[in-house]
Amino acid sequence: MSETKLTGDTFELYCDVVGNPTPEIQWWYAEINRADSFKQLWDGARKRRVSINTAYGANGVSVLGITRLTLEDSGTYECRASNDPKRNDLRQNPATTWIRAQATISVLQKPKINATDQIVLTGESPVKSVTLQCNLTTAHTPHRESFWVKNGLEITNTRTELKHTSHRIVKPRADDSGEYMCVYTFDMAPNANATIEVKAKPAIHGHKRSENKNEGENAMLYCKSVGYPHPTWTWRKMDGTSYADIDNSTGRFFITIRDNYTELNILKLDILTDPAVYQCNATSVIGNTAETTILRVRSNLAPLWPFLGVLAEIIILVVIIVVYERRKNPDDIIEDDEPAVPMKTNSTNNHKDKNIRQRNAK
């Protein structure tokens, strides 16, 4: 498809050809209004700014790309395909042996935008606000409007028709850092933009402070940060009194890194070697920061500990009762081998009293 580009941009053209046998694909170029002066393009031409990637299978597919466009790159680009056995015979008319598809590329001078230099946010000396500014000084046609973008997403309520545009960040923090762009739109030309980098030291704001697992299970520790540019992540483990890089000789440690996020996965936890303090470290050109997570690994018998504790208390109580009974005072116990002593009953005494009364009566 025909396109309009700006100097310094990149474009790609695709050509998909079907035929049996599979056709050969070539790329050709002619300057604008010079359709009779086509020249073949080769991979690496124009000081290696031209790339041609072609693949052949059931059909043929080819991609032409040109980087760092200049005004001289404007012209007509042609994809040619042929499976005629005589297609490369110079005595043959190319018009009858090759089929063609064309696209016109127009390259315009990129508008000039004066923009603020990069800004570095420092936590040691916080500022009340920072202001990003852009000024469109030169353009091929009048612009329509402008707006601001952060990390590829448009910032709301920033559209204006002024050539001079600004964006203010109040009380900037690490999560305000990123890649900002002021974008100018045109009616008959591609958008023009300028990039302003706002950099800050990484700040880790999400991680597990501790993790409790049973031996044999898997553990996942993670850290995520804010700050631009994205940091380089490393994981370390407390070894004695200092941190050491994780030894993965057992093949149980796996580290995943995605921009401002990292994970440490440990498989089949070992109760003897894996419990420790683990540290994630985020480092960028602006600075570095680190956070720690304590990993505790419990025995598989841990769920039985409450039951075993109750059982132990019962056993101890029974032992105490038995010992106490065996150590009681012997005087409090009637022994079976002592001779029985006849007890004087009230009936015997009554007989004696009766005899006495009888003698007195006589």
TrEMBL record:
Keyword Glycoprotein belongs to the record: yes
Annotated keywords: Cell adhesion, Cell membrane, Disulfide bond, Glycoprotein, Immunoglobulin domain, Membrane, Neurogenesis, Repeat, Signal, Synapse, Transmembrane, Transmembrane helix
Domain Ig-like as annotated: residue spans: 1-106, 111-197, 202-298
Recorded topology in the membrane: Single-pass type I membrane protein
Subcellular location: Cell membrane; Postsynaptic density
Protein's UniProt keywords contain Transcription regulation: no
Principal cellular location given in the protein's record: membrane
Region: Disordered, residue numbers: 334-362
SMART domains: IG (SM00409), IGc2 (SM00408)
Domain of life: Eukaryota
A GO-annotated cellular component: postsynaptic density
Annotated TM spans: 304-324
BP GO annotations: axon guidance; dendrite self-avoidance; homophilic cell adhesion via plasma membrane adhesion molecules; modulation of chemical synaptic transmission; regulation of macromolecule metabolic process; regulation of multicellular organismal process
Molecular function per GO: cell-cell adhesion mediator activity
Complexes and interactors: Interacts with ATP2B1; this interaction stabilizes ATP2B1 and increases ATPase activity; this interaction controls T cell calcium homeostasis following T cell activation. Interacts with XKR8; promoting its localization at the cell membrane.
Described purpose of this protein according to its UniProt entry: Probable homophilic and heterophilic cell adhesion molecule involved in long term potentiation at hippocampal excitatory synapses through activation of p38MAPK. May also regulate neurite outgrowth by activating the FGFR1 signaling pathway. May play a role in synaptic plasticity. Also acts as a chaperone for ATP2B1; stabilizes ATP2B1 and increases its ATPase activity. Promotes localization of XKR8 at the cell membrane.
Protein name, UniProt field: Neuroplastin
Provenance organism: Pogonophryne albipinna
Taxonomic classification: Eukaryota, Metazoa, Chordata, Craniata, Vertebrata
